[in-house]
Amino acid sequence: MPACSHRLVRLILVLLIALVILPFSSTTIFAQVVINEFLPNPSSGNDWVEIYNMSSDPVNISNWILDDEGTATDMTQISSGSEISGHQILVFEVATRLNKSSDTVYLLDANRLEKDRKDYNEDPGTDISIGRYLDGQNWTILQTPTKGSSNNEGNPVPTPTLIPTESPTSSPMPVPTSAPTSTPTPKPPTPTPSNSPTPVPTAAYKINEVENEDGDILSSVKIYIDGVYIHHYAPETITFCSGCKCDTYVDCGFGQHTFRLEKTGYNNWEKTEMINAAGSYEVNPVMTKTSATPAPTSTPTLTPSPTPVPTAKPLTPTPTPKVTPTPTPNPEVLGEEATGSGLYLLDEGTPSATPTSFAKDASSKKNFLPLTAIGLGVVLVFASLATFFFSSRQKA
């Protein structure tokens, strides 16, 4: 048999075998798997990449690779024996490998042949993905990521900066193209209602102007809470809440608190109050002046000076002239007993008064002695005259 006949027979056998095996194959050479969506800037968790089987036939993706630009290691390698069903979507987390501002995402088969790629050159924003709309078609920005589900249900906002790139295929056979479909006009994004912050319950304690008992307004009145100075002056409104701090270090949470006002020259004003959530409290303090109690001073004790007691000096006897008694007329002539002048004369050198009696009444004695002397002189003069007169008559 000629050589050409042998080659023809072999070719026919190969074709027959291929026709027998092809219907039972789990993959088809016409299937196309593409990158469908990825999130490069999540607020939490890992970056992720989503792939999509555009055909209705399953595709064996065993040992396929997802990679990015400029790294020595692959982002992830799909495990051996993996398969993606027709129109199925698979998601792979790739840690934080995708750059936020610019990068390239690659999909490679087991032989590292490029199946699909997507370049981007700006950050789409936090929790905003880059994806195809509709699935497997034009690239755009997806304000609401659709991780693991169809992008057809999202509300994309087309952006002119992201230009769709062709998805090269390593298969030399022509890839059937789907019939052109009309792209629906994107709807404007529906504003997402923002969650209003939950109001935190508070309480207010208002301290009005402080007055004294005369109704005068006082200034520079210090405020203390639970014995701690909060570096505030009345009037003041103090806010309380769960976990609040007054002046960054004084506990101003709900519960019982003691308020005290202080001012120099006034008695402290103090009040204890139970502060509850959503409570409103108001006080009008009146402070009283401190009593002006003088500081005790030592009063000098008057020591009585000793009263000088006059010391009785010995009385110097005053020399008294001796009176020479004049001879008195005979009693028969005068008709009376001659008794003399009736004056008791002190002997010379005899003190006129004892020192003791003089000490008792020295001043009275000093006044009495001159008078006594004068009186004695007068008596003597009259006695002498009387004696002379009676003597003259008798001679006559």
Detailed description of the structure:
The protein has 396 residues and is of the alpha+beta class. Among the domains are: 26-157, Sandwich (Immunoglobulin-like); 202-287, Carboxypeptidase-like, regulatory domain (Immunoglobulin-like), CATH 2.60.40.1120; 318-333 and 340-351 and 369-396, no CATH class. The chain is 16% helix and 27% strand. Strands 7-2-1-10-11-12 form a 6-stranded antiparallel sheet, with no helix packed on it. Strands 5-4-8-9 form a 4-stranded antiparallel sheet, with no helix packed on it. Strands 17-16-21-22 form a 4-stranded antiparallel sheet, with no helix packed on it. A hairpin with a 4-residue loop joins strand 14 (210-212) and strand 15. The chain is rod-shaped and about 240 Å long.
Task: Name its key features.
Immunoglobulin-like; 396 residues; alpha+beta; 27% strand; 4 helices
Provide the fold topology.
Elements: H1 3-21, E1 33-39, E2 48-53, E3 59-60, E4 65-68, E5 76-77, E6 83-84, E7 89-93, E8 103-108, E9 114-120, E10 129-133, E11 138-142, E12 156-157, E13 202-207, E14 210-212, E15 217-218, E16 221-225, E17 228-234, E18 236-241, E19 245-246, E20 250-251, E21 255-262, E22 269-275, E23 280-283, E24 286-287, H2 331-334, H3 355-360, H4 362-395
Parallel strand pairs: 13-23, 14-24
Antiparallel strand pairs: 1-2, 1-10, 2-7, 3-6, 4-5, 4-8, 8-9, 10-11, 11-12, 13-18, 14-15, 16-17, 16-21, 19-20, 21-22
